[in-house]
């Protein structure tokens, strides 16, 4: 029910295409409930990196897209009016897109700090 998608913005014209890709994933895989989109420098298979992107490249009020009142995976127990007043009948859910990509115009401000090279031989106990 969750997908992590990696997207590379190569020009200002690519801004917004990451969200279109997530919407396409929702259309292709109806059981998806959440999609998290990350930049090309984030390993989508590493949950620590995905959470890092969510923490440092995401603002809830501008980086979230809600798609309420749609069908999802039948095994999701939260799809019930008992869970939320916004769910009008069993089996409906609110799909969520978390855009954890850096706006293209701000890419230069979001470069990861490099690690220093360390000679581990200096720290070996003889």
Terminal Cα separation, in Å? 51 Å
What number is the mean pLDDT?
94
Q: Roughly how much helix do the residues carry, as a percent range?
A: 10-25%
Outline the low-pLDDT stretches. none
Major sheet, described briefly? 4 strands, mixed
Percentage of residues in strands: 15-25%
Secondary structure tally: strands: 4
State the order of secondary-structure elements, H for helix, E for strand: EHEHHEE
- Structural class by secondary-structure content: alpha/beta
Shape: elongated
Count of helical regions: 3
* Order of strands across the main sheet: 1-2-4-3
- C-alpha Rg, in Å? 19 Å
Write the layout of secondary structure elements.
Layout: E1 2-7, H1 17-28, E2 34-39, H2 47-56, H3 60-63, E3 64-71, E4 92-100
Parallel strand pairs: 1-2, 2-4
Antiparallel strand pairs: 3-4
Give an account of the 3D structure.
The chain has helices spanning 17-28, 47-56, 60-63, and strands spanning 2-7, 34-39, 64-71, 92-100. The protein is an alpha/beta fold and 126 residues long. The longest helix is centred in the N-terminal third of the chain and has 12 residues, at 17-28. It is elongated. The protein starts with a strand and ends in a 26-residue tail after the last strand. The mean pLDDT is 94.
């Amino acid at each position: 029910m969750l997908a992590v998608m990696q997207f590379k913005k190569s020009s200002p014209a690519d801004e917004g295409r990451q969200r279109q890709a997530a919407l396409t994933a929702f259309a292709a895989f109806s059981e998806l409930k959440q999609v998290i989109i990350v930049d090309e420098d984030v390993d989508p298979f590493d949950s620590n990196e995905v959470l890092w992107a969510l923490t440092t490249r995401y603002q809830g009020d501008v980086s979230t897209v809600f798609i309420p009142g749609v069908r999802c995976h039948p095994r999701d127990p939260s799809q019930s009016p008992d869970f939320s007043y916004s769910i009008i009948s069993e089996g409906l859910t609110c799909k969520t897109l978390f855009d954890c990509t850096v706006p293209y115009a701000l890419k230069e401000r979001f470069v990861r700090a490099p690690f220093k090279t360390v000679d581990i031989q200096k720290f070996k106990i003889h």
